[in-house]
Amino acid sequence: MEGKTLFESKHCLSLKCVLFLFYGGLGCIYPFLQSNMAYKGFDYNEIYSISIIIPVVALLGPLLFALLVDKWATSSAFAYGKRIRI
Question: Family per UniProt (predicted)?
Answer without folding.
Answer: Belongs to the major facilitator superfamily. MFSD6 family.
